[in-house]
Amino acid sequence: MNSRKRRRVPADKVPREPRSFRRARGKAPAYGSGRVAGLSGALRKGGASSRYHPPVDRHSVVVLLFLVGFVGLAGRTGYLAVTERDFLKEQGEARSVREVTIPVHRGMILDRNGEPLAVSAPMGYAWIDPQQTSLAAADTARLASVLGLTTEALEQRYRSGSKQFAYLARRLPPNTVRRVTDLGIEGVHIGREYHRFYPAGETTAHLLGRTDVDDVGQEGVELAYNEYLAGAPGAKRVLRDGRGGTVKDLDYVRDLDYLRAPRFGRDIELALDLRLQYLAYRELKTAVERNGATSGSLVMLDAETGEVLALANQPSFNPNDWQARGHHGVRNRAIADLYEPGSTVKPLTVLAALESGIYTPETEIDTHPGFLRVDGKTIEDPSNRGRITVTTALAKSSQVAVAKMALSMPEHAVFDAFQRAGFGDYTGCDLPGEELGLLSAIDLDKPIGRATLAYGYGVMATPMQIARAYLMLANNGIKRDLSIVRDAARGRASSRPVFARRDVEAVAAMLRGVVAPGGTAPKGRPASYTAAGKTGTARKVSSGTYDERAHVAFFAGFAPVFDPRIVLVVVINEPRGAGVGGGAVAAPVFAAVAERALRILGVPPVDGGVAETRGLPGGERAT
Fold it and tell me: Which residues are catalytic?
């Protein structure tokens, strides 16, 4: 039997069992001895693996890195806090601190008795930042429903705004503001502002004017006294969060004053009497509608001070309806419309005649045969009145008599009287938009120019200018500037005599005959009171010629005759009823307004309504 001879393997060449196997058999050497043996073997072998690498402690590395970063950040923070403190403060405040405007309300406008005519009420507005907020379709629909807008209109508003601000709605009442807030739509903000309200509405619209959506005066008193009424908004600093909400009031927290203290508008008291204004507006509106007229104006003055007690126009507008504001009815015709005043200026022509010394109230003038030819043109009366006195000529409004007086006087006599009475000049009422009028001396070298000027053609005046002239007649020849603000001292300061008292009293006595039976305006007699006044009927110019179908009816006067309290001018433009003259159309308005106004002012009636009328044509009596 052949036996195979075993080959001996050196001990160092015998492969060692895995350590796990040795442990399994319980033959594994101790941990310390095995580690030492392995280490010694490795040292004996040498080479790259002969160096010892202890295991890495990861926790220690993380802590070390954290400490290094913390020290670096702390150092950087300290460095910036010392070297860049102001810059960092500015940048921080720029991102969170905002300057907020403090809105202020306009001052109240009151009438002479303290009744409010214009007040400011707190309102709200909704706005959005289009750059940071985009409304979802559902939110847009809900918000549009609350604001009373269509979805398309609301989208158009915030898309057409500036990059960072767009109004969604303004003049929101408190209940609407509350409903918008309750929606809780992110990015939709509510602001506070003040807006104007006019308790009397269209009744006082032309005198008060109105403000725009930003509460800035646009017409009337609101514009004339805008700086006085408006005040100045203040400013404060607030801290805001990322959504634009206010976190705190910084000025309040720091116990500092506001950046700018708000200055609220100051109240202003007008000369207007709201009771008389309602009366004047109602009667004027009724007359315009009854006569089918295009427009109308009424001015009432305090006969002693020149203060404007009432001013009304037709058509009018509602200043509270700011969304429907247009140009219709906005024009203040009492100060902006120019008319040829017609026969309302004849008392001034008679004044000039009395001043000349050529005429007295009893001087007779021959008007036969009822017309007068001047420079190829015919001046005529409705009938041949023959020889009449100056008093009767004024009461009957004779064109022929007045033209003859003008032609018999020096060239500039009538023109000078008109100028002293205030035509061609501002009235001093301070209302914006007042027209200067027209009073020209160009045609005074022509007889026809002087003749027609004497009865109101060739001169242009506003109803307010006519009222000022009659204020002078009511004040015995003393001329005063008019005022819309209650300031009696101002009227007295501007007063100056422009005509002799004796002559003015004579003319005033003649004017009583106008409202007497037989005068041109018996319908102008106010019940239970005396009055003096003058009618006027002027044809309007159309296409360069006078239109026989278009007229302007006037009545100007004052009451009572002795110690006058009011001066009143009524203008009805283009009446289309049965009557078109001042006696038929404007005089009844004068009578109705004057009678009620004097009762409101507490003026006692005269002798139960009948007063002696010395000097009237035919010894007539009038009320």
Answer: 343
